[in-house]
Every structure is written in structure tokens, then in C-alpha cells.
Amino acid sequence: MIHFFALAPRADGVSPREFHDHWRHPHATLESRVPTVRGYVLSHQTHTNLLGDGQAEFDGVTEVAFDTAQDAAGFGEEPYYRRHVEPDEPKFVDLSRLEVFQTEEEVLTPRISEQDGATHADALWLHLDRPVSAKLLQFVRRDGNPHWAGEEDAGLGRRIGAFRHVRNHPSRAVHGDDPPFLGARQLWWPTVSAFEAGVNRDRDAFEGLVTKAGNAVVLLAESERYLR
After folding, report:
1. Where does the signal sequence lie (predicted)?
2. Which of 103, 113, 158, 208 lies in the 20 to 30 Å Cα band around 29?
3. Options 3.20.20.100, 3.30.360.10, 3.30.420.270, 3.30.70.100; which CATH number does 2-227 get?
4. 179-207 tens-digit pLDDT
């Protein structure tokens, strides 16, 4: 499965509320109906004092899942997308600064368990069952650290209480040898409060994950799932 990310900045003259509301409807209502789309998530950028000024570079990230690289590569030419979705984009997105990334997913921690010390409630939590979750997203730029993905990553994610931890690597079938990013990282929590509590328990682990990537886009988001 291919996971497509679109890092979206809002258009000039569009307020944050207007951006996020238009993104939810009508845009998500339309885009999630593209026939080749298998999963659809909107991650709305949310401020946290645990990240610096660059966290608001993008107002949100769209994640779309496709069955094949062919479907992902042809998304922009899909007739339903061209007819209904594409005309809506410039109404709220600054397309000149939009960045896209097609990836293949590597799951480090699928979910947490009671055997690993999680409470019963925490072990029951699964991102696919929830319409809204908190997510930390990191996109490593081309001039970032080529060794951004390390063997210690899964352990660092557990130390900050992440409920799920995934790394995304460039899809060679789509990007060839010239991807726009070196890779991406996603970590999930049920709520923003759970994220902040987990990070505050082990700031060294958090800094280890976030800073070792070098030049990267990092943001906290409240993610809304429209399709599993």
C-alpha cells in the first residue's frame, strides 16, 4: 500500500478557521470519494509549546492510502479528482507552497499492550477505531540527516508513551531516485494531553527522535479519519 502525504499551507486571505472548516467540508467530502482512495486522514496542525516556531509552516497534512503505486501516481489524473477536487483546492490552499510525498510504510510499534506495561484502557486503543487522534508528524528534508531512521527509534517512541509508531520511506515506484523528502515519521496518542504528558516524562527521548533528523518539518496535529 502507498501512503501519500500533502503538506498544505493555507492561501493568502484565508483565516485558520476558514482553512480547517473548508478542508473538512466540502473538500474532504469530495476527495475521500475518489474511487482509488483506500484511506483518508486530515491532520490539522495544533500548537504545542514542545515544538518551536517552525511548527506552523504548514496548516495541515492530508494522508491518502492507495492499493498500488500506479493508483498513487495517477491520483492527479483520476477523472473524479480532476472534475470535483482539483477546482476546489485553490479556494483555501496556497498551491505554490504545497508539498507532496509518496511513501511505503514501516510499522515499528503497531499498538501498545498490557504485556508491555500499558493499562487495559490504553491497550484497547487503536487509531483505526477513532475518528480523532493526536499525531506527531516529521518530514525529513533532502538536506536532513540521511541516518534519521535508527535502531533505537522504537524504544525512544515507547519512552515518550506513543501508542503507535511508523516510519515512511520514499516510494521508488513513484519518486524514483529523486524523492522530495528523505522520509517521514508518525507517532500517535489518543489526545494532545496524552502526547504532552508522554513527552514531558522523557524529554531526552523526544529530543533524540526530533532533532536527529536535522532539517525537517515537524508538527503536532489533531488527525481526523474519514476512511480506514
Report:
1. none
2. 103
3. 3.30.70.100
4. 999 999 999 999 999 999 999 999 999 99
Query: How far is Cα of residue 6 from the mean position of the Cα atoms in its chain?
Result: 9
Share of the chain above pLDDT 70, in %: 100
Coil, strand or helix at 151: coil
d(CA 17, CA 63): 20
Q: Count CB neighbours of 110 within 10 A.
A: 12
* b/e sequence 52-77, b meaning 16+ C-beta within 10 Å: eeebeebbbbbbbbbeebebbbebee
Q: Helix (H, G, I), strand (E, B), or coil: what is residue 106? A: strand
Amino acid at 106: E
3-class DSSP string for 174-203? HHCCCCCEEEEEEEEECCHHHHHHHHHHCH
How many helical (H) and strand (E) elements, i.e. helices and strands, does the chain have? 9, 8
